[in-house]
Amino acid sequence: MDDVLSFAVFLLTGVPLIAMLSVLTPLLRLLRIFPRSLSIDEQSLAGKVVIVTGCNTGIGLQTAKLLAHKGAAVVMACRSVEKAAAAAAATSPGAGSFHPIELDLADLKSVTRFVRSFEDQFGASHLHALVCNAGVPAKLGTRTVQGFEMAFGVSFIGHFALVLELLPRLKRCGGRVVTLSSVMHRFAQPGCSANWNHAAFDTYPMHLRVFTSSYSDAKSAMVLLAVALRARGIASSAVNPGAAAVPCVAPIISAEPLEHLYLSPYWVPSRLPVLDLAGPFVGAFPNLSKPEQAGAQGVALDAERLWSWGETVLQASHDREAQSQLGRAS
Ligand SMILES: NC(=O)c1ccc[n+]([C@@H]2O[C@H](COP(=O)([O-])OP(=O)(O)OC[C@H]3O[C@@H](n4cnc5c(N)ncnc54)[C@H](OP(=O)(O)O)[C@@H]3O)[C@@H](O)[C@H]2O)c1
Q: Is 215 a known active-site residue?
């Protein structure tokens, strides 16, 4: 019954919103409020090493292509090296180069393995930028290997573990960090620190689950991560890429038939040009905004709370792993 009510809320709010956007977007584009393309400066990135997570497709791939064309060595940190290699083979790296290395952000052990492989290939001193791009939508009942809710676990927990491992090197090399957020960060739960483990995620009403729950918290956490990194002397920016025409809702295949219905009004216009607010993949060249502008009052405090909460849960996760290894050995 709750889900039916929740669906009614969606019909009353989501459908008129989509209809309004469908009419307004072409109009705004005519008025040049949403540009179709942006000019990119010509600065060379030759000799720079940049890691981009989840860049075998979508915004990450366009970012990787652009960086390589400007001369960077782009480390394609992807959960499937085969997919990354295929994407790299289909693209000319221009003046730069592509280096696929396996990274599954849904498994903290894979994060550690990735950092070791990266060190083996690039030595101890390189890393000019890290683009924390990979992300997945919230999907009912899915958890990372270490048990975090999937959308939050991949976007925030996995990237946070990666940032922690790379932090000394980023500091040494003066490396920058870019985190991918979304307009959805605005729907994060207020004071969500208490719920960051999303233990109750599966019991949220459907409209919270699909639109405003863990995905929004994850995207808010990515803004806070950029803020916390700045406080630690790392040049960092949180990016809202706008709406890029990628099959972003396609992976949401759930046992819940109503969730399909929920997303179908979004899926249809996402296949048509009307919702393509930024033009196909122009989202890869985003409006970089200072994280300070993205948050409300107390954002620095929230960023610090998130950082220490993140350190605590990662430590707990390592401790659990060590205990279970001990158990297996004895
Ligand atoms: N598209 C938009 O309109 C939009 C709007 C706002 C924000 N964003 C944000 O922009 C970023 C890129 O989104 P996109 O639209 O380009 O999505 P996408 O096309 O679905 O690409 C997502 C990437 O993340 C990777 N990924 C998923 N789970 C992973 C994991 N466990 N470990 C490592 N990589 C993983 C995917 O790899 P596989 O191919 O193996 O699945 C894929 O390469 C995301 O953070 C998203 O939240 C997008």
A: yes
